[in-house]
Amino acid sequence: MRLVRALAIAILFSPCLLCAQNNAPKEPLPFNAGMLDRGIDPCADFYKFACGKWMAANPIPSDQATWGRFDELAERNREILRQILEQASVPDAKRGPVRQKIGDYYASCMDEKAVDAKGVEPLQPELARLAALRDKSELPEELAHLQRLGVDAVFRFSSDQDYKDATQVIAVADQDGLGLPERDYYFREDAKSAELRKAYVAHVQKMMELLGESPAQAASDAGIVMQMETALAKASMDVVQRREPANVYHKMAVADLAKLSPEFAWNRYLKAADAPPVQSLNVAAPDFFKGMQELLAAQPLDRWKTYLRWHLLHAAAPMLPQPFVQENFNFYGKTLTGAQELRPRWKRCVRFTDNDLGEALGQPYVEETFGVAGKERTLRMVKALEEALRSDLEQVSWMTDATKKQALIKLDKIANKIGYPDRWRDYSKLKIVRGDFLGNSLRANQFEFNRELAKIGKPVDRKEWDMSPPTVNAYYDPQMNDINFPAGILQPPFFDKRLDDAINFGAIGAVIGHELTHGFDDQGRQFDANGNWRDWWTTTDAQAFDQRAQCFVQEYSAFTPVDDVHLNGKLTLGENTADNGGLRLALMALQRELREHPDKPLDGFTPEQRLFLGWGQIWCENATPESQRMQAQTDPHSTAEPRVNGVVENMPEFQKAFGCQAGSPMVRQNACRVW
Q: Which residue out of 126, 500, 515, 641 is catalytically annotated?
């Protein structure tokens, strides 16, 4: 239940290797004044001013649901990773073990003819095992088996840092087992939500028919799946409730967990999962396991078999023959996100390889793209942003001296992970068999399940990363108290050594500031400098923070990215305060730099204006209505336009830089500010 606070909506891919080759992927454009729509007043709509011409020139590709600056970079990096993988996939006795693993995995994925020829045969042993269940008492062993294979059935069992002792790893049991994006999809009463539920049931039926069931049987099974999942959803917490650490931390003995669901033999489950000895664990969602108990008591074995067969099929669908892959896309891609076309197979295979062998793929990637110089440049900028945050914490008027002292101690202890891990993950125990795509995927899932469970009862490894090096993203981890910037994001358009400081501070500088402020937002502030869940704020400070945070809740809840769907200001609170604080810190760092090294206007814009333009242009994006709806309902990050305009509306520095008059749309009368 680690509360990792990431920058972006999606985990994507990253930069330049093999750049000397003629077929090297095209680098995304850095900041470009030609992308501005000068026909729009920046004080009326800064996002459209900063991004208007880019948006007009960059329609959404048919295989995407969104297309923005993140996606531009991701597309280039897919090409880079593709080149690595195609070279590694050529059989050669000189390949090292890392390149052999990633190459054979990728080659197996790319062999679509072999996958189609095998049909569902590779899945038959698992289907037969399910069919052979004779009694509900056998469900603990079967669930443990399926979860080891990566099937998200009923609940999730894994490991995590102990909230109250961040030096140790404990077991965690949590809600899971839904096929729709989150629990409220099962209960919203608007017409669109009802339509999506019908589409989901139809999708389950089609998939069951592809598996060989008659239309009548498949329709019946789809109805059972929907009923079972709705019951699990009813017992689940929603996405806003789960943002509060107190709601997802309930440490108890295994015997007490067993009392919540006595129909389920937890001791047998733990043995079948091959878990280390577990005396106590975090039961993140106790009410969920009470609901699971009711479902176990009420539903016969055949209905459980149907539910589990669906989740096995759903997990395996991307690795099965083309009809399964296409139908899986029809619902999860086209219906849910609005993408019109299945991505080419090589793009999917790059993603699968990165998901299952991320730090193996990351090694040749880093060798050819990032290097020591990239890490050093980024660390210098991080230090500048940390100094800006220090200055801000020292000066902030609403925080008492006692809390300021603790905040500065926490800031000093934030660790900076830049580019790639100091120690690479060891995949030697993961068996990759050329020509066995589904088997490789299932074994990779089992490897990861075992790796997570092996941590239980051991000290926390503070050098571990939660993102692979090619990822175009970044995150702050409040329990680790560290910021993590994979090599993938440290390049144009986010960072470009050829450009002036103003643009770089407005882009990657604001991102760095964003992650730093997560240590002090409504979630991060509940963890101390060592990562322990502890209230180190005075009551007065907490009330002052909550009052300022409520301003952001109200501001962002007023944005409607699509139709009548509003952003959820409570869900997006942490990311919105981070966006606002991050850009303000970036401006402070730039102004300090300008005092020592004054800069002249470029492209007709002052350094301060260019900082804001750098911020605006990293969020340029076109998105389908479907993807915006899903993001607004499920994601803690606001959609692109509010991310830009919502911040500048709150900044007098922006209004001064662009000469905005009172009453302009980009001048918020009651501006929100925490940092």
A: 515
